[in-house]
């Protein structure tokens, strides 16, 4: 049975991206459409999108709700991959360039609550059929705190559609001062611990966690982890209460965008049958980054937000011993906390020709790094799902990961399972444990036949979206069944 699905997110690849949410929001709707569902994706019309896109036209039937008359709905002239993209254009979004969430000083935009509440109100109007559009969804799929008030407003407006709320990273709550409740026009009876109040503040994410019909998160292990005090970010009690409504579904990747056989960002393509292009890409990258060109030198890569969650400090502590011995090269791409950025620059200065660091993000370079690397480092302290380890596997680059969240669900430790392993998994969050895992990897790297088999298992693994999309459809149908009974 085909369903009408309104998919709402604050970032969508390739339109705007700061992290993995954009990749999911760009790929999952396409996979749902490929299964025969009618999918509309709603995204804020950020200033950077409007500046770079000339093919947008107004949705003339759209009628903004009262109080939001200066909003309009835009859409590209053609559908892509079977979905319709809607861009909500309004104050605080269309008139602002740069990060969707942070100002030029790296601080939260002071009007984030007002901006994203307005976005949620536009989404609710579209879901209710009160915005002039004929199309109405069976299911409204919300993602992370920026859309957390959609299920709240849907209840307030009695919208007859099932609501799904997906947690991509529980670490980000959308937490605001208490008077924000009334500034946003929300009723006073929502101000209590079983609704939107969170330790004296207003929490957007609680809107989704409390009021959505069903909850999902991005890996089975993370679904278990967030129900514990250690990973629940103060919401574990609520999540345990809703445990029967919470489903962990491992993210997939877009197999067309991440395909070493056809990737346009690579100087040479390759496949599981012929890895010559991978070797050429490594040589090209070593030259481009100023690393010593050496085919037999293991190249370790990290692509990450440079924050403590990602275990960057563990890499900084574990790598000098290996670098001093001339055992590895390291290339890092990412941005984040200035102190970590500087420590990485210092490491590159201390080891010229062995360490290359690029601060910022470059999509094409990210593809080349994944393809050129011999090992991918992902020692995250927690990782709801993670996507880079999946890209690495597809590109014949075994990952070294900490056993947590989606990393535990997607990487099989070759040390524990030699015939089935796809990477290297360590348990203790210490530099010593990371270093030991890298040493195990280097020992296998020196065994060409075993290493080739390891690469092949990863490259042959299926991490496409089809299976995960079917799991989401099951969640949608459960939510619709529940709604029909109420």
What's the overall geometry? globular
In CATH, what is the homologous superfamily of the largest domain?
Answer: Glycogen Phosphorylase B
Question: What is the CATH fold-level name of the largest domain?
Answer: Rossmann fold
Rg computed from alpha carbons, rounded to a whole number of angstroms: 23 Å
Q: How many strand units?
A: 18
Helix residue percentage: 25-40%
Structural class: alpha/beta
**What would the average pLDDT be, to the nearest integer?**
95
CATH top level of the largest domain? Alpha Beta
Task: Return the domain count.
Answer: 2
Largest sheet, in brief, is: 9 strands, mixed
Question: From the coordinates shown, what is the CATH architecture of the largest domain?
Answer: 3-Layer(aba) Sandwich
How many DSSP H or I helices? 17
How much strand content do the residues show? 15-25%
Low-confidence stretches: none
